[in-house]
Amino acid sequence: MRKQVLLALGLAFITQLALSQTSSIKGSVVDNTDNKNLQNTVISLMRAKDSVLVKFARADRAGNFSIPNINEGEYIVMITHPYLGDYFDKTEIKPNAVTDLGKINMIPKSKLLAEVIIKSGSPIRIKGDTTVYTADSFKVREGANVEELLRRLPGIQVDKDGKITAMGEKVTKVLVDGEEFFGSDPGIATKNLRADVVKEVEVFDKKSDQAEFTGIDDGVKDKTINLKLKEDKKKGYFGKVEAGGGLADKYNNSIMLNAFKGKRKLAAYGIMSNTGKTNLDWEDANNYGGGMEGVETGISDDGGMYMMWNGDDDNNYWGGRNGIPRNWNGGLHYSNKFNNNKQSINGGYKFAKVNAPGVTSTFSKTFLPDTSWSTNTISNNYSSSNKHAFNFTMETTIDSMNTLKWTTRANENKSLTRNNYYSETLSDNLDSINNSRRKSNNDAVNDAVTSSLLWKHKFKKISRTLSINADLNWNRSDNEGLLYSLNNYFSNGIIDHRDTIDQQNIRNNEGKSISTKVAYTEPLIKDMYLELSYAFSYNANSSERITNEDDGSGKYADRIDSLSNSFQFNRLVNTPGLNFRVNKKKYTYSFGSSVGFSHFIQKNLTDETKRNYDYTNFFPRASFTYKIKPSENLRFNYNGSTTAPTLEQLQPITVNTDPLNIYIGNPNLNQSFRHSFNINYSSWNALKERNIWGGLRLNLTQNAFTQFSTIDSVGRRVYQTVNVDGIYNLNFNLDYGLKIPGTQWRLGFGPNININRNIDFVRDQKINEAVKNRTDTKSYGMRLNIGQYVKDKYNFHMGPNFTWNSSKASVNSSANAEYWQISGWAEGNVTLPKNFEIGTDVNYQARQKDPRFPANNNFTTWNASLTKRILKNELEFKIGLYDILNQNRGYNRSFNSYSFTESYYNTLKRFWLLTLTWNISKNGKPSGF
Amino acid sequence: MKKIFFVILIGCSGVIHAQQFINSGAIEFEVRTNNHRALGDDGMWVQMWKDKIPQFSTTYFQYTFNDNKAVYKFDHYDEKTKLPRGFGIGNPEDDVWYNDYTTGSFANYRFILGDNYLLSGQILKIDWKLSPTETREIAGFNCRKATGVIFDSVYVFAFYTDEVTVSGGPMGISGLPGMILGITIPRMFTSYIATKLQVAGVDVRTIVAPQKGKKKEFAAIRKDVERVTKDWGKWGTQALWNMSL
């Protein structure tokens, strides 16, 4: 309907134009002074009322011109020629008439110049000059607005209507910190801003906002006042207080506040909860927790962007799985910028206490070449941890060529665990093989400090850069615990023997490392670069394990020598490297290698033996990227890397803390070497709202670390880490998303394949023969999702996943398993009238039953909530029901070479929570958050 | 009754050259964007990136004109201020603007939101408001200022010289009595300023309409872009303006 009206109006307008465009104008230009040829002189016709160009023409060889088809009206005729003075004339075009301007005599500029100079007593103008008033030098009354301040400034007048005149000219623009303040009406800023927030008043000519950033004078000659505010007056705060309680005895309370003042931000938060909210969520972490501190962004060598998440476990206080946590968290964050943002500091402190009681039970089956058995365990545990973490980052831009960044983190985690454990191993005909009752506790203190300094230098020559960084790391872990274990071993179902372990375990680890890397890039020829690097690192690690037994007096004072050892492992590595890189428009590639010269020293302080050995490793790398389109590229990447064995793997000691799984260190371990191949493809089309991402990854490991297990007739396992070749992992992932044309529906498909080969060794003491066991696990899956999102109305998403799993162990085909796994989720929320919002989500998990485990483990969790907001969202009431069906289950199924395990752990089940949230703010949330 | 009411002196170059009017040549445009302003202020991602990228980026484009037709295309980056891939809107490296000022039509090869298109349509009509007394010298030419509004509300400040008889300009901006040698579009945080105009030795054979790309009417694709970018906020608007120039 509206369209039709517009169309009709448009037609009428066009008809009108057609009818009236019958007038024309003509004339000729002449140069009486020099008699020059005036061909190409421009004759422009502007509307008189607004100087809008209507038509233009150029004069012909004889100087004649004509402009046809003009509407009637008032016009300005402008005639210009590069070497002649401009001619302006006002003319009225009558309907259906030819206006003849006749002969127009153009005056050469040279002549004109002389006339003007003689005549004019040229007025004084301030051009490009800025007058600056310091606001505090002009006294105004308390609470006065900027208008009152302006009245006091010499050279500036403000009339009764608020019109401002500066240096005799009308001020048309008032800016605040160089920006327009709610539009360009000068009065809005001057009437609404308080005088005491203003640091300086700047008055200048024609530095319009566009000229300011482009450096190009666009010719706007506005008299402008810029009010520069005091940094400390840009202040305010925002935050929220959340109180939640519900049955049964559930609570979730938090308070968060961020106070800002100029560039300074100070934020604090506190949380106490027993509903699984153990930390700030993503959004809150950004607002109150200095959440971005682990994120690093930058520009990669080949000109792309990167974003890195240094996922430190500061933010992960609780694994989120085992047990029902009760937690108290707090944090403080400070950041500031100085000197025009050239220096910045950023620091914070976090505290978390998590108490988590838990119950876990497992059912597993183990298959050896000629025998099999099952094991059931139940564990009652309680853990409590207290963590403190500090971080500090300082960045400074020394000049345009040099930047320096220093980052330091320190944290301490004190934890205690208590564990009551029972396990029983049964043969296939349900005869006991062994059982074990264990009680243990452990107190641990972990401390760590890392510090890193990075200096980046750019040279005058483009792309020539130097960067040097130095890292220092220190960590220490002290553990002390008691273990009491009563173990019964059976033979043909009849008790054969029993043993008791009653000991104190002390373990102290310390690690120190210093490393530095120098990298230099030299542009060779256009688009080709040479990168040289040199890295040096030194690691020193020590581990002391002391096992004591009761000396008879109830004190753990007698050392058990066979279970005690003190060991050191030091590593010195020098790594020079060379890399070529070519960046072309359509493709980039790079190849190179570094060589690691490593020197290892193992010292067994207990028996005073020492072992030195050296490795030389090549770390080749190559990558190739083909940019098919700006929105489509293909990338291939290879690199090789080594992993040194850990001290725990090397230390030659028997660890009997699990008497049925005894670990012995292996000081003869070699380092492992991994080849990693990657192919990625990505493509997007925003117009079709379609994206594809695909990746294929192959990792091959030489000298990989694996386990060598020896199992005796009573089901006791002794294992050691050894090296093996032939371990690989192949992974394929595809992600395809599109919007169904003409609808709001978005669809996603994600086929994925994972193929894994693991190799380990098992020796069954009964046959006393070591068997190499190859385990092939495969999974083929398909992720699907579909969703719709309409801003401020509703959103709905659901995604079923289908996976087929298989596991095959060469040692015994009875250990093989194949099963389907289906999981699905759906979520949606709807915004209702009167600021109500309703939301719900459902999660479903099902696994094909395994005949070896008869229990049905399918379950559905369903949550729903209703929210009401009042007082412009300042207050929020929410009632939430969690796990409405009371089916939530902690469950996991895992395969491990020749055994597989189902585990159950207690987890949060049905509860409801009523939450009141109060959002507070003063001066809002500034930009930059 | 004719009355001269206004004579103003422009420039101070008193020397008169026996120079010809120019109807064929090549112009190098220096395109400068204020990246920090373009990123805006909202969000910490923006704050983080601001520290990593240069405040201004400069790119050079070549504009070749002859016989009232012109081709405008990317020439090179200023390596010092080059943005990382994926930043900024669009990707101009392969884009070609071809304008035929006689017929008032264009044929552009443009990369738009994931694909390369061959766009056809009518050259943007702009109501230019002249400020003939405000002048600037660009690339040695005396230019007059004109102000126009595009896309309903976006101001364009242009400087043109009447010494060039082709009424053209970079991208699709034209319609003044001469060649536009300088443009500033404050709301797109970008300026286009000629650094040199070469008259001799210009290969005018390069002025041909592009042939490759998915054929599409400009009006149709603009509608599509408008639809998908409407929820993108500021970025959407910038993307839409960018493709429409």
Tell me the radius of gyration of chain B. 19 Å
Please state the oligomeric state of the protein chains shown.
heterodimer
Strand content of chain A: over 45%
Count of helices of chain B?
4
- Annotation, overall tally of beta strands of chain B: 13
Tell me the distance between the termini of chain A.
Answer: 45 Å
What spatial order of strands do you see in the largest sheet of chain B?
8-9-10-11-12-2-3-4-5-6-7-13
Helix count from the secondary structure assignment of chain A: 7
Q: DSSP strand (E) fraction of chain B? A: 35-45%
Low-confidence stretches of chain B: 1-18
- Report how far the terminal alpha carbons of chain B are from each other: 43 Å
Sheet of most strands of chain A: 26 strands, antiparallel, barrel
Order of helices and strands of chain B: EEHHEEEEEEEEEEEHH
Rounded to the nearest angstrom, the radius of gyration of chain A is 39 Å
Largest interface chains and counts: A-B, 75 and 86 residues
The geometry of chain A reads as elongated
Helix share, percent of chain A: under 10%
Instruction: Provide the residue-averaged pLDDT of chain A.
Output: 83
Q: State mean pLDDT of chain B (0 to 100 scale).
A: 83
